Amino acid sequence: MMQFSPSAGGLAESQTLAITAAAKRMKADGIDVAPFAAGEPDFLTPDFIREAGIQAIRDGRTKYGPAAGIAELRAAVAETMAASGFAGMTADRTVIGAGAKPVLYFGLAVLLEPGDEVIIPTPCWLSYPKMVQAVGGTCVYVGTRPDQGYVIDPDAVRAAITPRTKALILNSPGNPTGAVQPDDVQRELGRIAAEHGIGVISDEIYEHMTYAPARFHSFAELAPDAHDLTLIVNGVSKAYAMTGWRIGWGAGPKDWVQRMIRLQSHALSGPPDIAQLAALAALQGPTEERDAMCARFVERRTVMCEALNAIPDVSCPVPDGAFYVLPDVSAYLEASYEGEPIGNSTKLAALMLEHAHAAVVPGDVFEAPYAVRFSYACSQDDIRKGIARVADFLASLQRPATA
Question: Which of 17, 53, 145, 182 is the most exposed place for a label (fewest CB within 10 A)?
Fold first, then answer.
């Protein structure tokens, strides 16, 4: 029998993608499923961006491109990052990836040695721990609390540092919580990183989905002393409804980025020019459609939070960014369905999909076992109908009597 790597070879499938695929199969069978699982806007990519991709095809941009990405997009990313506070950013300190995921993965892969530790505030996006595992690293979790807005405690991060600590992953606005980390917290985390020589990977993919009165500031702007230790990761997937175009980027220290480029040259060759030229159009084009999409997310957030908070014993904090909510459903985890105990959020999510026809992601995969994640990147009609079915399903559960 073949033996496989316990790190990369032992990874489980992404629960988000698995649940989304199951929901699509049900929908193909004629079942009306509320699409609350996928982190994917339901809007079409704006016309001017699609036209740029079509023009790239007409222009014959169908050959291999540079492993680091095309020069014009790298220059635009550098300009964008410099404008957001990453002083001195230049194109040779950027890398374009086939989505933000490989940028994150390659950033970890060239940094970590087996046994190195990565501090990850929780709840966290489910792929961060798997990426760390895949390259032989060890996750060290620092918890945050919903009643404190999921704000990271810098003292807890400092206490988690050991001689093996190599990196800290930040995500603001965050998935799955939607939390926007305060400026003073990010400044202090930058000071801690500089003091201990810890690399910081700041995932800022939800930058443009920050809702007033909250404001987005890049970690690079807030922590200039840590510039030599900081890799900013971003992309066009969320803000421009370009998930399927698969374009993201990284910007950071030249020695870190150049190693990522070399790894990408072997692993992926490089992202396609067609998609990169569409991304370039997104960065350089008008922002009205992007801003209009974000305004729609604010409206949907209100509808979803009000509907969830109307369900008895469900507590749903209102997030400041992204397009997710993470309601506390712990009151239902001790319940049973048709005599079978539920016990955890994974089972509850499976039952919601089967019986409420609502695709949600269990909090277990985000290190938030008390919760399930709902995406509001869908229509208000889907939200209202889907949450109504969830409410009816939860009301049908057999819950233990209270004293």
Answer: 145
Residue of 314, 313, 292 lying closest to 304 (CA atoms): 314
Q: What is the 3-state secondary structure (H, E, C) of the chain?
A: CCCCCCCHHHCCCCHHHHHHHHHHHHHHCCCCCEECCCCCCCCCCCHHHHHHHHHHHHCCCCCCCCCCCCHHHHHHHHHHHHHCCCCCCCHHHEEEECCHHHHHHHHHHCCCCCCCEEEEEECCCCHHHHHHHHCCCEEEEEECCHHHCCCCCHHHHHHHCCCCEEEEEEECCCCCCCCCCCHHHHHHHHHHHHHHCCEEEEECCCCCCECCCCCCCCHHHHCHHHHHHEEEEEECCCCCCCHHHCCEEEECCHHHHHHHHHHHHHHCCCCCHHHHHHHHHHHHCCCHHHHHHHHHHHHHHHHHHHHHHCCCCCECCCCCECCEECCECHHHCCCEECCEECCCHHHHHHHHHHHHCEECEEHHHHCCCCEEEEECCCCHHHHHHHHHHHHHHHHHCECCCCC
Q: Is residue 401 part of a domain?
A: no
369 found inside a domain = yes
Please check whether residue 19 is in contact with residue 357, taking contact to mean a CB–CB distance below 8 angstroms. no
Question: What pLDDT, in 10s, does the model give residues 91-127?
Answer: 999 999 999 999 999 999 999 999 999 999 999 999 9
User: Are 124 and 15 contained in the same domain?
Assistant: no
276 vs 194: CA distance, rounded Å: 33
The parent domain of residue 385 ranges over 8-44+289-396
Give the pair of three-digit tokens for residue 103.
Answer: 């940028």
Asked if residue 225 and residue 172 are part of one domain, the reply reads yes
Residue 373 domain-assigned (yes or no): yes
Domain boundary among 230, 249, 284: 284
In 10 A of CB 183, how many CB atoms? Answer: 12
Q: What is the pLDDT of residue 402?
A: 62
Which among 351, 371, 356 has a CA at the least distance from the CA of 123? 371
